[in-house]
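Narrative progress, year one. The postdoctoral researcher (J.K.) led the effort to move from monomer predictions toward full complexes, under supervision of the PI. The following entry was the first complex the group processed end to end, covering 546 residues in total.
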Amino acid sequence: MSAVEVHNLRKEFGRGGVWRNRKRALALNGVGFEVARGECVSILGRNGSGKSTLVRALSTLILPDGGDVRIFGYDVVKDAAAVRRVVNRVSVEASFFKKMSPVENLSYAARFYGLGLRETRERIPEILDRVGFPQSRRDSRMETLSRGTQQKVALARALLTSPVLLLLDEPTTGLDPRSKLEVQAFIEQIREAHDTTILLCTHDMREAEILSERIGILEQGRLLQLAPVDELLSHYGADTVEEVFLAATGHTVEDDWDETETEGLEVKS
Amino acid sequence: MTRATLAVRHELIGLFGVVERNAYLVKRYAVWELTWFVWTVANTLTIVFIAKGVEAAGGSLDVKQTTTVLLIGAVIWSYLGILFEILTQTVGWERWEGTIEYTFMAPLSRVVHLLGMGLFAVVYGLIRTVLLFFVVASFFTLDLSKADFWAAFVVLVIASISFLGVGVMTAVFPLISPEKGTQLGFIAQGMLLVVSGVYYSVSVLPDWMQVLAKFSPATYALRGIRHAILDGASVSDLWGDIWPLLVIGVVAIPLGFAIFHRGEIYAKRHGLLKRSG
């Protein structure tokens, strides 16, 4: 059984206007792929390409309009409770209660996954040690920590719940180079230590290349490619992943998504 | 442990987690909590002084009794405000902090999540309400010699079941309208109290509003608490107000969960379960 099975996934959202003038825009358009247990797959895409919508669909936060998504055999709509027990995520925003300390935030998150007082007392310091979080800052408010440090706590939060599928939605975007390397190293450690399956959505080509076995390219809600890096390079006759992305989409990953690009995909409601 | 026992343990830990998180937040915002309490005292006083003001303007009324009637109305208004605000925060605050996606993708049933918010709201609200009552009462010379505070407290606790049901219904507003949803919670609070005789007898309302008053739990809560404090009515004397509260509670709680569930499905369908809405 695959860790993730996505078949013909479709999601559209209303955009602009009111009532009759409201348009529908396809965020995901027939996306399909599989991720094997223990594998790390990266999805590359520009802002607005549908990466976050894909992560939200896999984490039961949106209802697909069509298609089928299974996590370890559980359907994300019909078996949402079972899916939630095995999935966790780290997104671009560290997202914490800012006045609360890292330990308080981690305790709260752990309770939602059924971890009692004794378990959290033992595991939180252990996990914070592993991410290299200084002892002296554990009772500081989250808002006083740097973004890189907050992101380490976000990884610790995800790891605390022992997820078998970890969804990483641009986990290093906006971090300074040193923090970025530290977070990437920790992601590698998680994989080695826990045999966790990882789906990484990013627009950092280098990160995708370092961390994953296969790379997919998502453009305007369509998954254009999903293959190992060497296959992508030879398929497009390219030397770098950047060149592959340019050849596949006609854009660089930094190009901002423009609403007019999806006009052909829109469906008037 | 059996699978069922484990599942129950998991949910209870989650319930405790929600209460624990809110307790952390109260601790972290302690100065703001104190500031808000001072404002609530001031706001309550502006209403309760009306009785003395009417007398000073030449009106004829039993000042002590009217002051107590107004005090109970203002205190219940404040209590409802706390309950509705905390329940509305189930979505509103989480969206503001950006934690909403993590909370809503966690393996905790929504019913237990909302019950945790409700449990915290009731405990926190009761503590503040009792404090508010006695702090504001200390500004006046009231005749509380006959008051049965225990009976009043029991009515308030029983009324809380119905209030929670209504509060959960209002908690859905920020889910479906990130921009205006929180304000709609305050509107619901005002609508509930205006028909329930918050500062006056229900009998002064137009007939159609009196019909609505029969369906409002606040009507029975206000009447029962006033009866306990002004006339010394015991819990058994107040059965006539308690049983409607129980009936409304039995209907309101499941109805609240069902409405929230529908709201969550709507939010998931329209992609609203996210930080920016």
